[in-house]
């Protein structure tokens, strides 16, 4: 009897909501005969010239120009008309219909924020139609992969443009590779975070415990080593020394001036003496990887500094993750694979715009034996889609911020639920985090 009712999208309705920074983003309710399925688009800092385009209103009198009423209108009037009647199971056809309707390379006509919210909502509807969990439906779309729980990269200390301190690099993270389950990894992350808060308060006072956009602590530190020493102090207090590794997101594009890197770019009292060449940055990273258990470095150089990235990756010291370098852009990823520049990429789904395109770039990376890090954005919502896609595509790594703040924990808590649902068949990648 259930099959007598055709599977079809019956209505699509969008609205403007606020993300974790208080900036507007797009939320969609997509209806089928199975019910209503909701999704929202995350948002980051301006993604640059290589990522898909978020459509903003530009009216400075409303939300400082950041409103998304145009994107909402595009969903309610254009996208809705194009996809109502389509089968929600056919993700590729739904995504292609929106891409064809937009007609631009970067989705600037309808807005990647509009297209992505609909794409995720349709993905949820497709899973419901098949009566399977979302991660299982995503795995099916990818051709079927083992459901592996990823290693979380928990943000402990924030810097760069995400925090108000003088630390140049954007994040210092921990990876609980020695945990046996994802739930245990969460425990390790939470305990380390709270030990870090205690250590920061002892050294910098309560003001040092103010959290940044992604939940990381932002004490007034200025050097890489000062931050890393704090994290090592916290790790030491947990007793998990052999089970935790460190990852750093340098986000070097933020402080690259010409061919030099200004490590004091945030300091009001900078002397102008802390500029480093690319070669000097390589030596800094080599020393840090020697002195600390650093296993992954993200964006160690400017987004156009291909030669230094290739040189550093060739040293084989640690995983080298491309974020600003690649922007989740298939052409950039293809070039990086061909030139052996980095060996992992940061998957930011909103830089692509559809679930189908995210699946395609993950396949490309896995074929090249690359690591894949599913990533949050600075402007998040309580949508937990990143958790399901990380399991469905068995990416092995997820970066969703600190074990703090609801929009970050929405992803981590969903992974706990998924692990419980899979039961005895659940596999936490642990030490195999690089190539799950």
Automatic annotation (TrEMBL):
Pathway annotation: Carbohydrate degradation; glycolysis; pyruvate from D-glyceraldehyde 3-phosphate: step 4/5
Needed cofactors: Mg(2+)
Positions bound to Mg(2+): 249, 298, 323
Record flagged with keyword Metal-binding: yes
Gene Ontology MF terms in the entry: magnesium ion binding; phosphopyruvate hydratase activity
Signal as UniProt keyword: no
Entry's cofactor comment: Mg(2+) is required for catalysis and for stabilizing the dimer.
Protein name: phosphopyruvate hydratase
Organism: Mikania micrantha
């Amino acid at each position: 009897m259930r099959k007598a009712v055709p599977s079809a999208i019956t209505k699509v309705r969008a609205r403007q909501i606020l993300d974790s920074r208080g900036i507007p983003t797009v939320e969609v309710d997509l209806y089928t005969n199975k019910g209503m399925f909701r999704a929202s688009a995350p948002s980051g800092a301006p993604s640059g010239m290589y990522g898909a385009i978020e459509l903003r209103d530009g009216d400075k009198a409303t939300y400082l120009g950041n409103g998304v009423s145009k994107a909402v209108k595009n969903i309610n009037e254009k996208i809705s008309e194009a996809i109502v009647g389509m089968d929600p199971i056919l993700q590729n056809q739904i995504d292609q219909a929106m891409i064809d309707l937009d007609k631009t390379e970067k989705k600037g006509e309808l807005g990647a924020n509009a297209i992505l919210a609909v794409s995720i909502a349709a993905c949820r509807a497709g899973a419901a139609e098949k009566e399977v969990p979302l991660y299982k439906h995503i795995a099916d779309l990818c051709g079927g992969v083992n459901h592996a729980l990823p290693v979380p990269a928990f943000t402990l200390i924030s810097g760069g443009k995400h925090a108000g301190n003088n630390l140049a690099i954007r994040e210092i993270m921990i990876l609980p590779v020695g945990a046996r389950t994802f739930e245990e990894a969460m425990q390790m992350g939470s305990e380390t975070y709270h030990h870090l808060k205690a250590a920061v308060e002892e050294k910098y006072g309560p003001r040092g415990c103010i959290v940044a956009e992604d939940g990381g602590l932002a004490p007034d530190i200025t050097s890489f080593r000062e931050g890393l020493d704090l994290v090592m102090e916290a790790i030491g207090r947990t007793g998990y020394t052999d089970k935790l590794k460190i990852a750093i997101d340098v986000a070097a594009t933020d402080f690259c001036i010409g061919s030099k890197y200004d490590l004091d770019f945030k300091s009001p009292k900078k002397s102008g003496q802390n500029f480093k060449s690319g070669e000097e940055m390589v030596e800094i990273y080599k020393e840090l990887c020697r002195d600390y258990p650093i296993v992954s470095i993200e964006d160690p150089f400017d987004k156009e500094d291909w030669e230094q990235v290739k040189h550093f990756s060739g040293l084989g010291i640690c995983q080298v993750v491309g974020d600003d370098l690649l922007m989740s852009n298939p052409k950039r990823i293809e070039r990086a694979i061909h030139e052996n520049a980095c060996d992992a990429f940061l998957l930011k789904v909103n830089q692509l715009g559809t679930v189908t395109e995210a699946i395609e770039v993950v396949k490309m990376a896995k074929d090249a034996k690359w690591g894949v890090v599913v990533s949050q954005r600075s402007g998040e919502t309580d949508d937990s889609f990143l958790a399901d896609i990380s399991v469905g595509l068995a990416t092995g790594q997820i970066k969703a911020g600190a074990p703090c703040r609801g929009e970050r924990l929405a992803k981590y808590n969903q992974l706990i639920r998924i692990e419980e649902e899979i039961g005895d068949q659940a596999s936490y990648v642990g030490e195999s985090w690089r190539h799950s």
